[in-house]
Amino acid sequence: MHANKVPLSLSDLNLAVKCEASHTFEYIDSAGKETGVLLTVLGSQAPKVQDWVRKSINQRRTRDEMNKKRGKEVQNTVEDDEDFSNEAAAIRLVGWEGITEQYSHSLALQLIANNRDIRDQIFAASNDLSNFTKG
What we know:
Layout: H1 15-18, E1 23-28, E2 34-41, H2 47-69, H3 78-92, E3 93-97, H4 105-114, H5 116-127
Antiparallel strand pairs: 1-2, 2-3
Helix pairs in contact: 2-3, 3-4, 3-5, 4-5
């Protein structure tokens, strides 16, 4: 151990708990301009996010396996993948400011489906663990 370093506990290293604390960032439009829209996200390792990802992938695998057993060809479309990505971003988005409509999951999904820049920024903020481990 380095001199003058205090040992860390397991709870200090628990990123799942730290990712439950939301992080708010400003959406920057495709021209690089500030929009005044603030988006609040959970970290990618938050239990709510991880549980949704696991459940969704398991459901898809089960569906694919059942189709194979029935002799049906398994073919996931690009639209399936886009829907998964949109839902994966929407589960991370837990609030906003600067949008006239009040936040709801269904409106979050609509926003993300209509604006890939927002989806990409949600993923970037959610995956940047430094947003959840400061301090």
